[in-house]
Input
Amino acid sequence: MKVIIDTPEQVAVLAAQRYVRLLSQKPDAVLGLATGSTPLGLYAQLVRLNQAGAISFRQVTSYNLDEYVGLDGTHDQSYRYFMNHNLFDLVDIDKARTFVPSGLDTSQETAAAYDKAIQAAGGIDIQLLGIGNNGHIGFNEPNTPFGSTTHMVELTASTREANCRFFHSLDEVPTHAVTMGIKTVMQAKSIILIALGQAKAEIVKKTIQGPVTELVPASVLQLHPDVEIYLDPAAASLL
Ligand code: PGA
Output
């Protein structure tokens, strides 16, 4: 794993450069995208670069990591809404080629079809990841099998509490989500994980320097041949 440590602003700039390079070589690349606070700086950079004509998403296909169960895309806390609002509506991407797991159809057939669609599109060129305080990637909570594909999960209490800040109350935070599995993520050709802030320092250390274990889902990334981890000094402080 390659670890890059810089200010949050510079992390966004450097990560955005990866997308500029990829899309200049492969304009029809397949992007695996993520939600949460962490990618917002990167998305702002991508919007800026798109508006400046330095990058185009016109031929891109995208697959998001996850979605809350029970929220449709018009709900302002759904991840479809987040993506439209923070990226898709602001760049030249064809929305018909942007995919987010369904929060309403949680059948196994639909989950399996999501993985099949990714493969049929040629596989993900760059998968973007944040990391939960408990080491989750996507919504793959601790103890998720490394062999998992897209599936429905029950969110842990710590994840629901961490995400409560976006809802009016804890009761409103969905109890389940649909997420790409660990295997789905690991099949991406390249992976970029971004972690910012002191609260992530402990889990970042376990991810990079600890044993590879299903107890720390992100530790599986040690087994992937092309991973870049972008950290600010606070998130890197225990390395
Ligand atoms: P955050 O979430 O970017 O809001 O910290 C990351 C995650 O839970 O994967």
